[in-house]
Amino acid sequence: MYAMSRYIGAIDQGTSSTRFMVFDRSGKIVASAQKEHAQFFSKPGWVEHDAAEIWQRTQQVMSEAMQQSALRAADMAAIGITNQRETTVLWNRKTGKPVANAIVWQDMRVADDVALFSRVRGQDFSRDRTGLPLSTYFSALKIRWMLANIPEIRRQAEAGEVLFGNIDSWLLWNLTGGPDKGLHVTDVTNASRTQLMNLQTLSWDTDLLKAFDVPPQMLPRICSSSEVYGHVAQGALQGVAIAGILGDQQAALVGQTCFERGEAKNTYGTGCFLLMNTGDRPVHSRHGLLTTVAYKFGTQPACYALEGSVAISGALVQWLRDNLGVITSSADIEALAQSVDDNGGVYFVPAFSGLYAPYWNESARGVIAGLTRYANKGHIARAVLEATAFQTRDVVDAMDQDFGIRLTIVRADGGMVKNNLLMQFQSDILDRTVVRPLIQETTALGAAYAAGLAVGFFKDVSELRGHWSAAHTWNPGMEAPRRDHLYQSWKKAVSRSLDWLD
Question: CB–CB of 433/423 below 8 Å?
Answer without folding.
Answer: no
